[in-house]
Amino acid sequence: MTSQLPSTIYILTSPAVADTITCIYPISSQYGLLPRIFFYITLFLCIFAHNEWLVAACLLSVMTYTGTGAIHAFVLAKQNHAVLDLDARVLLPLLAAALLCFSPILQWSGTLRSQSGRRIFELWVALVAVGALCCIGGFLGPRTETETECRSVDGALRRSPRDSGFNCTYTCFSAPRSPIRGKEDVIAVETGMVNSEPQIKMLVYTIVLALVCIVCLPLYAIATRGLETTPRDREEARLKASLGTQEGARRESVLPKVFATFCVGALVAVVAVNERFVIRSLVSTEEPYAVGQWAGFVAAALVVTATAVNWWIERSSGLKVTTKVVRAT
Fold first, then answer.
1. Which of 114, 172, 201, 321 has its C-alpha lying 20 to 30 A from 315's C-alpha?
2. Rounded to an integer, what distance in angstroms lies between the CA atom of residue 29 and that of residue 38?
3. Percentage of residues of the chain with pLDDT beyond 90
């Protein structure tokens, strides 16, 4: 391959010769491989971890990451269709995964027991749902136009506005610039890289699950409001039931648990199929060793280390006070 952009990774999985090209903006650094892995780890910890401070930290990370992504989706929905922004292709499964985690977190995590915490969580889900709808609208809306490929005398494919030695160009290179992208960030890739049949099928599958969540989550929230949906709540309800109190006599519905289990399975499927068939072949702006990719892991490690050190200091201080009290008595 010739005339690569210095800061761009080209992951070409389609044949070397193609009839048409599609102009794209590559995946931004915040949606690269390592940030996505970090997001998936924190997402599953939100569902399955039992330590409340760990769940709260992971939930905060997930909410800020996907909340920012949802606002980004609002901007992407208003862009022109001359250039395909791959951030929208990545945001769709990320936001769908966030929607799918809603009911499992409410069902099995004790972190969102307070009404205020749950209301904030529900508002975040509404924000993510609107962002997902923006991504879905962009996918189902007008398709990005394809163009006949431009090649040099020696057969090299023109990929960037900065490439020289070509007697032809693409109209998308002169299209109106995105408000959040540089004009020279446009890259021409073989159409099969971004519109292959497996990619389209997996994206449609993700859209169906996202729409199911958007329709069912309000019903789930209404059905579980005021009911025992966390392990601690259920234990308290059983205790109250054994004491014969009216509150403990309420029967827990099976449907929320079934729906939460379905969402966990769908979450795993969405992550697996999109990483395997959709995102894997797309163009990214950074390699995994770039600082923008691994900085999130370092930041999380520092926070965990600081929390552990603080816990150890408090525990040591508590032991010293206890020892002094015992000796005094």
1. 114
2. 13
3. 26
